[in-house]
Amino acid sequence: MASTDIGLGLIAIGAGIAVGLAGLGTGMAQKDIGAAAIGAITEDSKLFGKALMFMVLPETIVIFGLVIAILAAFVLPGSIELDMTYPAE
To answer: What CATH number should be reported for the domain holding residue 14?
Structure first.
């Protein structure tokens, strides 16, 4: 029972790390892209659509992290073997 609880806890930690690191990477990417997009839009306002697409592109990284977290939360617990045997007295 305790090993199952530890396994589920580690799955939850892994899911959190997947989303957290994906969000951190996306934020770091959007910081540079956003600065370049604002500079390009001030030069030529016709570039707004392209700049918007480049700003949205890193968000797919977070979606991938969320998919991994959902798979970890719902698929992996079914693969943990439950030890239902009682210890010998």
So the answer is: 1.20.20.10
